[in-house]
Amino acid sequence: MNNPERQSFAAALTAVRERTLELISGLSEDALLRQHNSLMSPIIWDLGHIGAFEDLWLVRRLGTVCGEAELDEAYDAFKTPRSERGGLTLLDGPSLLNRLAEVRRQAFRLLETVEFDPANQLLRDGFAYEMVVEHEAQHQETMLQTISLMTSESYEPVTQRERPVGNNARAGEMIRVPAGVFRMGAGRNGFAYDNERPRHAVDVGQFEIGRYPVTNGEFLEFIAAGGYGNRGLWTDVGWNWSEQASLSAPMYWEPVDGAEETSPVVEAARVAREMGLDGWHRRTSLGIESLDPSVPVVHICCHEAEAYARFASGRLPTEAEWEKAAAWDSETESPRTNPWGEDSETVGRANLDQLTFGPAPIGAFPAGRSAVGCEQMLGDVWEWTASTLDGYPGFQAFPYPEYSEVFFGPQYRVLRGGSWATRPGVSRNSFRNWDYPIRRQIFSGVRLVRDA
What we know:
four-stranded mixed beta sheet; alpha+beta; 14 strands; globular
């Protein structure tokens, strides 16, 4: 391919596939095929879905608007929910990898001759190619959630970067954001999903927002004070879920010496009071690790985030508040693509790209601060918001309603910012993630807001 635009898309497709193969390279055939948790698909399903999605959009229907229903039924996420995917008859690992390679060869052959017709919204600026790359990157994060849940075998990353150190940053510091109108959402240029558009004006009142996400050390205070047993801190729905799920600490946290009391909540509070974070460790398929008080808390559901916020005399940010703090530059009166500006380079500015395999301490990325001074808005942990998922004024579904429109409604909460497991190409100030408020297997945390 001697066309720079074609070369760019080929390079992006190659890079995202190399990372997918690297992430799964150390897994046994059993680990690929097994459904490790009913919340998650077998990893082999994610791989098959990646291939089927690419085959649909870059081979069979290149340049044609279609929908999820045109995928093979086994890989249609709506016809085959996650809880049923463990019972599907799917290709084994070697056969599936061969299938992925064959689809990629066909996609590259078509890429050599495709015309990026500006009148075709799927082909204009290579939208379909960017969509397929981001789709695979998003499934990498999903597979990392599954890998964290594995108990059948341990996981050894092929490549692991050392996490940066903090700078003795002060947890709990708040930044005041002035009232006023800002422009929210993605602009017309560049790749974005339908739910990020159109850009529109939003008037936001004055508020204070955390300079950093809430840390393990801060969340430990909530546990020590009996927060999991304090009914007054929880919504009715949140309390009922906490009782049903027997919540007493973030997911994967365990008392070092095991539980001694009948009540997990009572025992968690005792360990937190008497031993602090030294009384806890975190256990995943990557092994057991100690808990750093300066690292953002991760693997909490929205109900836990809301209860903590009330404990700390705050609340969750709305989507608009979060995005204004991350994106709005009052001096230029314009939104930034990333908190630090338009430069797409994230190294030294955010903990993204998967290979640290965990959040970094607060204060580790001062070069990534937003115009108002917030840090670590992208990367480390997804941040729960108070907003439910809906379309912006003037929303138009594209290229298919199943990406976001079918999820609009009060049952889903929006998360912002990306996590350590998010690829840089997927992370931007306007990106909107969403999930049920009970979910904890996602790499989710919280940033506090207070009225000012």
